[in-house]
Amino acid sequence: MDAYIEFRNVVKKFDDFVALDHVSLQIPKGAFVTLLGPSGCGKTTLMRQLAGFSEPEEGDVLVDGKRMNGLPPFKRNTPLVFQEYALFPHMTVYENISYGLKLKKTPKEEKDRKVAEMLEMFNLQGLEGRFPKQLSGGQQQRVAFARALVMGQEILLLDEPLSNLDAKLRVEVRTELRQIQQKFGITTMYVTHDQDEALSMSDIIAVMRRGRIEQIGSPWEIYFRPANRFVADFVGTVNFLEGTARREADGSLSVDHMGMRLRVDEDTDLQGGEPVTLVVRPEGISLLGLEEPAPEGTALHGVIENYSFLGRMIRYWVRVGTEVFVIDDANVDLTGARTGDVQLRLDTRKLHVLKGGGADAAG
Ligand code: ATP
């Protein structure tokens, strides 16, 4: 992979506090990369090293092979759009978008042409004479993106840019933003702590915790093949089943869990006898009646404790012995939710094995 943006062993400290602890990340040109992680894990700090608002104590930040360390923000071509997108309230859409061009004393014709391109790109035609307060939240957000990109930058840095929008609008704007990003091939670094946003928009997700990157991968890898228990837990609802690995005579892998032998299809180098943790997403388990046959090694018996009707699916909480499993059942029928005793059938293809038990389990 050719890196267009690269962080090499970046260390950032605030007094004794290590906010970034030897962070390395490579981003190919045109990719949409999301930094995902809990509050305070260092997402914004990492992005600021690239934008030039902060300098690392150690390590390098490179764009297109050139070292950025020490360059002021305006020489880096990496505009940053914050959560508070703060358009100038007394300026029209046209004036807001053209602000940077005006500072650069760009001739009027060129300015008009560039603004027109941005208006078209962000679907804002006809709104150029309006003031920010006459726009919807989504439109204001698009003006902020247009203002950031009008100078012809090829990199866009977005720090939780959608968090001021209501839930429905967020989904609309994120779809739109992703389409524009892909169409124009703008290399984008995006900060969020919202896993749905990260999964739906990104080419690559870097999951961070306490100043370190825990895993870099595609949304699919991060979701179905999390590197450890923290990542599995952070990127969605998950069931953890602790047990012991077992190598069958034919070389296949199974895991003994609560007196059951569960088959695992994943290819791993695990030895028999090792403690393991199975990672199972709620949609990796389905519900069956007690009378329905399930292949050996795929089912557990349980009792439905609770459910929540979500329209396109029902989320169930099912007790199996001392554990409660979360299950999303998409087979919603018109008669209502199931109750009582059931079998839980595990989709053996969707089981992921981590080595070790407890909080330390890792791939
Ligand atoms: P959030 O999702 O809450 O924005 P984040 O992952 O973006 O969190 P950062 O803003 O990067 O987190 O902060 C990482 C850590 O560094 C936090 O513990 C924060 O308190 C600390 N920190 C950030 N900036 C400074 C600063 N200028 N001085 C001292 N500590 C700082």
Automatic annotation (TrEMBL):
**Where does the record place the ABC transporter domain?**
5-235
- Record carries keyword Glycosyltransferase: no
Q: Which Pfam families match?
A: ABC_tran (PF00005), TOBE_2 (PF08402)
What keywords are assigned to this protein? ATP-binding, Nucleotide-binding, Transport
Q: Which GO terms describe its molecular function?
A: ATP binding
Check the record and name the SUPFAM superfamilies matching this protein: MOP-like (SSF50331), P-loop containing nucleoside triphosphate hydrolases (SSF52540)
What are the TM regions of this chain, as residue ranges? none
- InterPro entries on file: AAA+_ATPase, ABC_SmlMolc_Importer, ABC_transporter-like_ATP-bd, ABC_transporter-like_CS, Mo/tungstate-bd_C_term_dom, P-loop_NTPase, Transp-assoc_OB_typ2
In its UniProt entry, what is this protein called? ABC transporter ATP-binding protein
Q: Which organism is it from?
A: Oscillibacter valericigenes
**Source organism lineage?**
Bacteria, Bacillati, Bacillota, Clostridia, Eubacteriales
